[in-house]
Structures are given as structure tokens and as C-alpha cells.
Amino acid sequence: MNKLLSLCLAVMLLPLAVSANAKFVEGKHYQVIAEQASAKPAVKEYFSFYCGGCYGFEPVAQSLARKLPEGTEFKKVHVDFIRAASPEIQNMLARAYLVAKNMGKGDQVTMAIFNQIHRSRVPFVNEADVRNLMLLHDIDADEYEKAMRSFSVRGAASQMKKEQEELSKSRVLSSVPMLVVNDKYKIINEALNQRNLENELQELISYLLAKDA
Fold first, then answer.
1. 31-210 has which CATH code?
2. Is residue 2 predicted with pLDDT exceeding 70?
3. Quick one: three-class SS letters along the chain?
4. Percent of the chain residues past pLDDT 90, beyond the cut
5. For residue range 96-154, what is the model confidence (pLDDT) as tens digits?
6. Residue-range domain boundaries for the chain
7. Rounded to the nearest 5 degrees, what angle is found at the Cα of 122, between the Cα atoms of 54 and 114?
8. Which of 85, 121, 142, 196 is buried deepest, with most CB atoms within 10 A?
9. C-alpha–C-alpha distance, residues 150 and 160, integer Å
10. pLDDT digits over 27-74, tens only?
11. What average pLDDT does this structure show over 189-209?
């Protein structure tokens, strides 16, 4: 069954891959950062709620996530190296995002956090500030507090930190937003047509997914 799904995905992406093959160049539009691709197709966005560029990119990120081929996961990985808030607050925001995502409100809460920081310019000072924002989006207080303390959410936040440290150490991750396809290909946003960024990203992502299909 898995082989059949992989074959179907490859056939679906083939026309895009053929046209993109002549357009996208390794070392210019994308960088190979690992020998082995992820077991399952995935696109990761490394971002920070305190990054203005990430705030501007968020509508594009959400649109790209909706248009991915079936079976391809879009994962957001929050980083904490932007010194606009304490590591504790940034960890809380990362966990709050994970809780919201698990409750089916990831996109909604992500934009709310971005808007509070960048549009309203109201800082998150403590745990109560994060909790209050979540409650405004119809998330039950008891469920939220239980989830924030859960092993799964804390583990996922720790995994974000681990990935950040590993990619920073290897000098792959130095700025955000950054997109990585299949844990193997880093997209170089600067080389893409900024006036047609979403379409170019969608085309490049499809091309890179097809390379490992």
C-alpha cells in the first residue's frame, strides 16, 4: 500500500518536477543539508513569533500548508534565538502553539500571537498572559493547563529546541523564516521571485518532494 501511494504521488508530481528541473538549481534555490530524507514527506517551517519577517510570511505559510499533496505534513518549528523575550516566555508560546494545533486551532492561535506582538505591540510578560490569549479563542482553561504540562507537549517543544540547536551548530539555521523539505533540502528564499513568492515556493516544494518520492 505504501509503495502504491508513493507511486501515485510521484506520478501526480511528475509534470511539475519536469518543468521545475530546468528552473531550480541546487546551491542557488535550495541546499542539500542531509544525506537521508525523512521517512514520510514533510515540509518544516522554522520560525519565531518575535520575527517580523515570520509575521509577514505567515499567510503564505498557511496557504502553502493547505496546498501540499495528500500525505505531506506541514510542521512549524519555533526557535528561541531572537532576543525579544526570555527563553521561558518563548518556550511557553511554543507549547501554547502545540496545544492549539492539537486542538485544531493552530493557525488561528498562531495569528493571534503574531498580532498581539507585532500589531497590538502588547508583550507577553508571564504565563497568565499566554493563558488569557488562549482562553479568548474558546480553549477550555482546564484542558489548556493540563495539555501545557503534558509529556507530549513538553516533549515536542524540547524536540523543537533540539532541532534548532543541531541546525544552528551546523550553520544551516541562521535566520527565519526557513523552509526545509523532507529534512533534506533547505529552500533559499532570497533566490526566488519575491513578487510571485507563494507560487514559486509551491512549485519548488513540489519539485523537492518528487525527488524523494
1. 3.40.30.10
2. no
3. CHHHHHHHHHHHHHHHHHHHHCCCCECCCEEECCCCCCCCCEEEEEECCCCHHHHHHHHHHHHHHHCCCCCCEEEEEECCCCCCCCHHHHHHHHHHHHHHHHCCCHHHHHHHHHHHHHHCCCCCCCHHHHHHHHHHCCCCHHHHHHHHHCHHHHHHHHHHHHHHHHHHHCCCCCCCCEEEECCCEEECHHHCCHHHHHHHHHHHHHHHHHHCC
4. 87
5. 999 999 999 999 999 999 999 999 999 999 999 999 999 999 999 999 999 999 999 99
6. 31-210
7. 20
8. 85
9. 16
10. 999 999 999 999 999 999 999 999 999 999 999 999 999 999 999 999
11. 95
Cell readout for 125 is 510578560
In this predicted structure, what is the pLDDT of residue 15? Answer: 55
CA separation for the pair 96, 98 (Å, rounded): 5
Q: Are 26 and 167 in contact (CB under 8 A)?
A: no
Q: State phi, psi for 99 to the nearest 5 degrees.
A: -60, -45
Residue type, 56: G
Q: What percent of the chain has pLDDT above 70?
A: 90
Quote the CA–CA distance of 6 and 202 in Å, as a whole number: 19
Burial class (CB in 10 A: 0-12, 13-18, 19+), 6: middle
And the C-alpha cell for 156? Answer: 515536542
